[in-house]
Each structure stands twice: as structure tokens, then as C-alpha cells.
Design goal:
Oligomer: single chain
Number of helices: 12
CATH architecture of the largest domain: 3-Layer(bba) Sandwich
Radius of gyration: 22 Å
Number of domains: 2
CATH superfamily of the largest domain: FAD/NAD(P)-binding domain
Distance between the termini: 16 Å
CATH class of the largest domain: Alpha Beta
Largest sheet: 6 strands, mixed
Helix content: 25-40%
Strand order of the largest sheet: 6-2-1-7-17-16
Strand content: 15-25%
Amino acid sequence: MEEVTVIGGGLAGCEAAWALAKAGEAVSLYEMKPSRFSPAHKSAALAELVCSNSLKAKRTESAAGLLKAELRLWGSLCLEAADATAVPAGGALAVDREAFSTYITERICTHPLITLHREEVTALPENGYCICAAGPLASDALAANITALCGDALSFHDAAAPIVEADSIGKEYTFTQSRYDRGEEDDYINCPLDKTQYEAFHAALLTAERADAHPFDVYEGCMPIEVLASRGLDAIRFGPMKPVGLRDPRTGHRPWAVLQLRKENTAGTLYNLVGFQTNLKFSEQKRVFGMIPALQDAAYARYGVMHRNTFLNSPQVLNPDLSCKARDSLWFAGQITGTEGYMESAACGRIAAEQVLRRLHGLPPLPLPPETMIGALLGFVTGSASKDFQPMGANFGLLPPLPVRIRDKQARNQALSERALSALREVPGASRSPYPPPRYA
């Protein structure tokens, strides 16, 4: 039995290690925590969720929901954990972060074919098969080694939203409702602002002092709230603070703007500020966010933070099967490839494992149908023609159009999802395995 090395105990690494082990392959999984932490990580557990506890929409007529449906066909460990640790979040799949990570850690640590090494990897192994899922926060030494091998390693900055204690939220200034009434009524706490309050809050965001005044690149999906605010008076009112789909029962009308708070844990003692990733100084976060009536006395369990993320110029350095052009026994997976998002990273790890399994069994690389969300996403990551490659999350724009135009958006998305799932069911490895029975099931 040839042991496969997996570097990184995040979602992609855990998904890859689990898939390999379930297929009967021995795995050495390396994770540098707790001997060393990145600036963004706090827990020693595997598969730590840093930015948010939401895995996005559940319904299959959404891109995020389709991705999860596809990943379920591959037997995803991360979705197994998410289902077991879910917290109410309307139409989204959100989890208790600590319980989610604990679940995955226990599954990984108790599998007899997975050996977990709690140590930092400073250089990619030159011999044997390896999946590098070091994430966007690879240590400086490993990042330098990757750059030396691949070149064109880029960096950008990512942001995490604050978390507040539930008891400190001014409930008299809030109402509970899921957007468009998807999910249970109390899945979200809504903090409404009238026009005057909103404009004062917007003005304060523009002048608030930031923790890092140096210019940097930020992925659009994680843009700090203060940067979004600088794009115009209504930029965040049509973004994270959009009031669409909500009605304040105290007035009977839609608010001018709304901050939504989503449960951070099963007990409902913590809530995160949805879409409020930020790089403001901690004191400024308390002052400016405190201008929202419901948060004027808020106690912060964690302030918003920013950290450097690193990703590869994947179209230049990776083959379509995620193997490295400079070393064909090395595969990359997760956010380091430019797959942006929790489930996107997990999917990337799962497919990298599948490609390694095929190599181990003497099979050619597995082509993924471009009609599937996973296939289209990884096709973009490894084949984008853009001169300015940037991370990409699941979206219907990646999929080829339907043969017949459907005008209704929801009906069109549902048809795209049905086509994708039908195509994926025919792929070896999804729902069925092309390999001999594993030595351990």
C-alpha cells in the first residue's frame, strides 16, 4: 500500500484524506496546529471555519445548493458534519462552528488508515503522491517553497465578520424573520435602520480608522464593509444591508436598511454580523457598529479581522486534474487553487482525492462534465484565460447555457441543476466507485 501525503487539515485536506481512506488508501495528514497558528485560526481542531458559519443556500435552484447536492453524491465528510451540527439559518445551511470542527476531527482521528501529524510542513515532498491543501494561509516557509516550485503565487487579503453575544443585543430594536420567510421566523435577528440612521452610519464607516492603512487586494466576495461603503451612499444598502424580503412588524413597512444577525452556535448564545467583514480597529468597530440601535451595548465575542490569503495562478501552474505541471505526483486542492468558499474548497479536495485514486489504480484522469457545478468551477480554476486570475466561487454563470432558453430565472436555475445532477450520476466515483472493494469500509 502506497501512503498518500495530504498537507493541511482544513476542509479540502480533510475531505481528501477521508475520500482516500474510505477507498482503502493509507493517508498521512499533516496539520501545523496547535504547534503553530496562522493569524486567523484560533482552534486546534481540524476543518476550522474562520470567516463565517454559513455554508450558503440549501435549495438546488441556487448555485451553492447545487454544489452541495453534487458533493453529497461524492459522499462528502464536510456535508455529513454540517448536517449533524446545523443551526437554524432560514434557507441557508449554517453550522455550530465548534461542533462542526469537532465532528470532523473525531472522524479523521478515528479512521485506522489516516495518521494525523501535528507538525508544520515547510517543503513539499519530492517523492510519493501528495495533495497540498495548505489553504490560503500556508505558512511563510511552505508558501516560499510552493512559489519556488510553481512561481506566480499571488496574495490577497480576506476578512472575517464580528461575533456578538446574544444577551447584549438590544432586542427592543429588532425583529426576527428570515428573508422571504425562508426557514423559521427566528433564524435571523434583523436590526433595522431608518434613512437618517443609515446615512449617519454610512458616513461613520467612511471616516473610521482602519487597522491597516496600506493598500492591498481583496477578493470581491469578502470585501470589508467599509470598502463597500466607499463605493457610494447606497452600496451597502443594496448589498449586505439590503432590506428586500423583510418587513418590520412594528411599522408594517420594509426598513430603509437592515443588518442581519445569524446564529453562530446551536445554543444561540452567539450571533455573527452577516456580511460585515471588516478591517476597522477594534475600538472603531465597537463605536461605529454601535450606531446601529440594536448593537449600541453589544458585547463582542470576536471582533472582525483581516488576514493575508495566498493562492496560485492555477491556470498557469495546474493541469485540468489539479496536478502540478512542474511535478506530476503533486496535486493542489482547496482555496490555494482559487476555489473560493467552504464547500468549493471541500469539493476541490474531494476531486483531487479522486484523481489520486485513479492514478493509484492505473486509470486516466477523471474528466468532469462542464454541465456540473464542480466540473465548471474546476474547469475555470485550471483553464481560465483571464490575464488577471482571481478566486471564483460557485455560480450559474460558469455553466454552459441550456439548449432551450427559459426566461424565468428560478425555473432556469432548476433546469440547470437537474441537468448537472443527471450528468454527475454518470461519473465514476459519484454514487458508485470504479475501484476494487476497499480494505477498510
